[in-house]
Amino acid sequence: MAGSAYDTDLDRNAANYTALSPLSLIRRAAAVYPDKPAVIHGDRRFTWAETYARSRRLASALSRRGIGKNDTVAVMAANVPALYEAHFGLPMAGAVLNAINTRLDAATIAFILDHGEARALLVDREFSGVAKQALALAKTRPLVVDIDDADIGDGEFLGEMEYEAFLGTGDPEFAWSPPDDEWNAIALNYTSGTTGNPKGVVYHHRGAYLLAIGNILTWNLPPHPTYLWTLPMFHCNGWCFPWTLAAVAGTSVCLRRVTAAGIFQAIHERGVSHFCGAPIVLNLAINAKPEERGPALPRTVEVMTAAAPPPAAVLQRMEQQGFHVTHVYGLTEVYGPATVCAWHEEWSLLPIEDQARLKSRQGVGYAVLEDLMVADPATLAPVPRDGATMGEVFMRGNTVMKGYFRNPKATDEAFAGGWFHTGDLGVMHPDGYIELKDRSKDIVISGGENISTIEIESTLYRHPAILEAAVVARPDEKWGETPCAFVTLKDGATASAAELIAFCRDNMAHFKCPRTVVFGPLPKTSTGKVRKYVLRERAIHL
Amino acid sequence: MAGSAYDTDLDRNAANYTALSPLSLIRRAAAVYPDKPAVIHGDRRFTWAETYARSRRLASALSRRGIGKNDTVAVMAANVPALYEAHFGLPMAGAVLNAINTRLDAATIAFILDHGEARALLVDREFSGVAKQALALAKTRPLVVDIDDADIGDGEFLGEMEYEAFLGTGDPEFAWSPPDDEWNAIALNYTSGTTGNPKGVVYHHRGAYLLAIGNILTWNLPPHPTYLWTLPMFHCNGWCFPWTLAAVAGTSVCLRRVTAAGIFQAIHERGVSHFCGAPIVLNLAINAKPEERGPALPRTVEVMTAAAPPPAAVLQRMEQQGFHVTHVYGLTEVYGPATVCAWHEEWSLLPIEDQARLKSRQGVGYAVLEDLMVADPATLAPVPRDGATMGEVFMRGNTVMKGYFRNPKATDEAFAGGWFHTGDLGVMHPDGYIELKDRSKDIVISGGENISTIEIESTLYRHPAILEAAVVARPDEKWGETPCAFVTLKDGATASAAELIAFCRDNMAHFKCPRTVVFGPLPKTSTGKVRKYVLRERAIHL
Predict the structure, then answer these.
(1) Average pLDDT of B211-231?
(2) Which of A141, A265, B241, B306 has the maximal Cβ count within 10 Å?
(3) Are A411 and B18 inside 8 Å of each other by CB?
(4) Mean pLDDT within A74-99
(5) Chain B residue with minimal CA distance to A206?
(6) Which of B299, B355, B304 is nearest to B325 (CA)?
(7) How many Å apart are CA B351 and CA A313, to the nearest integer?
(8) What value does the mean pLDDT of chain B take?
(9) Reduced to 3 states, what is the DSSP secondary structure of residue B253?
(10) How near does any CA of chain A get to the CA of B13, in Å?
(11) Which of B4, B6, B47 to mutate to test the interface with A (most CBs of A within 10 A)?
(12) What is the ipTM of this complex?
């Protein structure tokens, strides 16, 4: 209704409109809490004033090299201060942060550097070997800056300058500007697809700001938490937590290598109050040896977990050991976490097994996610809220990616019908909570029945000898497919295939039980997800 | 840089963009916590599912009367469920909520109805007398709906229908749409100017959403707080707390009349954990009689206060009695609170008087406010951070109003130079915290020296006999102006003018001390601000 008095002489101006951007959060942290610790890494310790100044130096140094708006800057690093600072310094220059998974092979990294058109690469000396190969394979010729670090053993220097020297070329008072549009790109994250080339997911300032705030709302994050970096920052920008921590002026405790001893040491010696991690990290914690663990936890430690639905047994053991687990779920395309199993206080009165069952659900949308549904992928008709009918999980809202970089076809497919297609399958419970039943490709269809591999895994985890379990479909002449379980036993524990199958038959419908059990370590991605496609290959050839 | 791959094929679409609006917050509260209490008023109790359904009924009923996008709907009501629901139901219909201060005179209300072009008026029966006069004076002929309530004594019915019957004409499943633009108006709030006609401040969905979230960040608001409505909802939309409470699925406890007994009863019987209020409300609490107070507080009660800087003595007594005070500052033009005296934990180790002095500062910008400065009003040059140089307080960001309704001249003046001019005077401390020294018009200029009336008031509050104090300028032939104090003594306390002046001379620079002291009750606005212009008039004629 143009012409309304509410739309007349009431336009945006410099006083009443600013682009939403996480950059405003670090400026405020540095202004209000300049002396509070922002980043701790071994003996190094930076306050918010220092982290802000270092980020401005980085922005300035890049600008002086002609790197600016919409230029991609790749970073290959462990969870070290340089990568944290890149989350601010790069966008202050207008550049786009492309944090690369450090465990990828050289050919994939070369593909990413070329596809992302990287103008610069900051590379942690720990990864200079693979980076060197990747640079040799890549067509692009980025400016290379090495990140040196006291806790790296050795590793070649590849670039013309070390990171600290590069910062030295920048101005700590650099007059950065907020983005001229909150839709501007802030980060580029390549998905670790199981087939084909990875796709580059583009985040914008608006979404990064909103998810940074959404994490606070979801986790009820207090001011000044001490946060341990168990989750790689290259994974969905650490679920946007670098920006979240600026919003609450929290302290980032870096951790180059995630070990049980390292986690417990950080809790005891650094005062860690919060960390995030895939179930593999939870497993590390609950299976820690007494000498790794040390004394009882000095306080409840808040843990946010995602990646794959944590088995009820794992959740239960975490809580018994003094961790409080918040279960979230998301994907690279939605900036990391997008749903949370929002807790109802009355659930805390239930038996702990029921609590664990409720908590293993993926739950409801983040407050900043507009909408979430489980629906028929063809018609987009929502499934009934019966906790049984399978459908695909769909999302929409401001924390859904801008799209795939230089890939309009994939973008259009992902957004077909006005919803983001997650590719994950689940059910909708009567209370509006979703529960994943499987990634699309992981489902086992046996004798016409859909079988959730997650359900089988959850059952296996309840067996006392099981450390880890992953189930995939194995081709079968009679049934089409049958479930095949790959399991790792705990140190010193023993169990036979027959025993585990019998245990499953005692605890779930017989048609769902694994027909095959294979023992041994599980292949995993760098973020702790089991590489099920590797297991599917193995299952074919059993 | 058009043509960048980051700006190509990566547009907004239904999957990845939604207008920011507080309406998304109530939808989520009703979906995730349908059975939790949303609003309690006497014996009436509505869950989030019910409040959502009632809001949809309201939207539907208005729509069926042809009231929709950009139509103003005025509400004159105490803090009752209908006004809470109006914060959601009106914008669901696309309408703009104009909550009117219930203590205004009929002529001013008539002006507001006409200037705001109200299409409907919901009126609480308590205020039907003045509303009837206003309607007689106004040119506009709105649809009138009466709000009846068990706790209203009497009062004429003015409209064609009572509110509950009106809701009955609406559909609880009404398919409302989010705003097509987050810049759309959501509320219209008239300032209670001291001279001339009130100005209509327009809020938009984006700002309302961000301040609703900003309140959570600022107050570290946990999920499901129980919030007592001591602050009028017609005051800057209750500082956006109706929307904040939807975001945290909290419970609103209504309170028609703010009394000490009512506050303590709600704390003891309703489990109230949080409330907001002007210093007058804090005064009520700390000066409550034992029989009003009841037993010791069952828990720390969080109090957010603003309006005028609370004297250190009041803050100190609140904390001693078990209230934890958060000090914010703002204006109608910035959706309510815009700054907060963000606390540093090390300050808690200081003597309580020092803590109170630090806490009486207005502090730093809300996380959602982009920028804040104290500057020369002519040049916009920031004052030095010396805690002494006076300047005007300026703000900018997304929680600054859209502008003044049908008043482009006032809008342009308010936003001159790309900053919102608050009209308030203050200093910037070396740590970046602002402290108000006076509203522009309240300053006393005596012998060429600027004297802060707030400083004098703070001193007076430290005298044991003082209940309330307000200082204004009194014209003086020799000095230009001298400070004139109006004071109210506590029940049973006595003090002479000479004694109070001597007390001031013992505690502050002599040139700043009041030359005149007048005893008696202070004239106040409906929101508890002292009407200093009335006192200035009186001071002239002393």
Answers:
(1) 97
(2) B241
(3) no
(4) 98
(5) B17
(6) B304
(7) 50
(8) 92
(9) strand
(10) 7
(11) B6
(12) 0.87
Average pLDDT over residues A105-112: 93
Q: Do B6 and A418 count as a contact with CB atoms less than 8 A apart?
A: no
Two domains, one topology: B23-210 and B443-540: no
DSSP annotation of A306 reads: -
Task: Find where tokens 């609406």 sit.
Answer: B170
Q: What is the CATH number of domain B443-540?
A: 3.30.300.30
Q: How confident is the model at residue A281 (pLDDT cuts 50, 70, 90)?
A: confident
Domain B23-210 has CATH 3.30.720.210: no
Q: Do B405 and A24 touch (CB under 8 A)?
A: no
Contact B149, B60 (CB under 8 A): no
Measured in Å, how far apart are chain A's first and last C-alpha atoms? 67
Pick from B16, B183, B217: which is nearest to A247 by CB?
Answer: B217
CA nearest neighbour of A431 among A503, A342, A513, A502: A342
A18/B370 CB distance under 8 A: yes
Question: Is A127 in contact with A156 (CB distance < 8 Å)?
Answer: no
Nearest to B10 among A13, A202, A370 (CB): A202
User: Under 8 Å CB-to-CB from B459, ≥6 apart: which residues?
Assistant: B503, B504, B507, B508
pLDDT tens digit sequence for B245-259: 999 999 999 999 999
Which residues have C-beta within 8 Å of that of residue B204, sequence separation ≥ 6? Answer: B182, B183, B184, B185, B186, B402
Cβ-nearest to A16 among B213, B223, B402:
B402
Structure tokens at A229: 């970096």
Q: Each residue of B51-107: pLDDT tens digit?
A: 999 999 999 999 999 999 999 999 999 999 999 999 999 999 999 999 999 988 899
Q: What pTM does this model have?
A: 0.87
pLDDT band of residue A1 (cuts 50, 70, 90) is very low
Q: What pLDDT sits at residue A194?
A: 43
Tell me which CATH homologous superfamily contains domain B258-440: ANL, N-terminal domain (3.40.50.12780)
Using one digit for the tens of pLDDT, what is the confidence trace for B163-202?
Answer: 999 999 999 999 999 999 999 999 999 986 544 678 999 9
Backbone torsions φ then ψ of A458, nearest 5 degrees? -60, -40
Q: Which of B31, B344, B396 comes nearest A15 by C-beta?
A: B396
CA dist., res. A398 & res. B14, Å (int): 10
- Residues β-bridged to residue B204: B185
**Domain made up of A41-204: CATH architecture:** 3-Layer(aba) Sandwich (3.40)
Q: Does residue B2 have a pLDDT over 60?
A: no
Q: Cα B132 from chain centroid?
A: 26
Residue-range domain boundaries for chain A:
41-204, 258-440, 443-540
Distance CA B60, CA B65 (A): 9
Q: Under a CB-based contact definition with an 8 Å cutoff, are residues B428 and B387 in contact?
A: yes
CA A288-A290-A295 angle, 5° bins: 110
Structure-block tokens of residue B162 = 């009572």
Cβ contact B247–A367 (<8 Å): yes
Has residue A220 got a pLDDT over 90? yes
Q: Where are the beta strands (DSSP E) in A149-282?
A: 161-162, 185-190, 200-204, 226-228, 251-253, 274-277
Helix (H) or strand (E) holding B536: helix B532-540
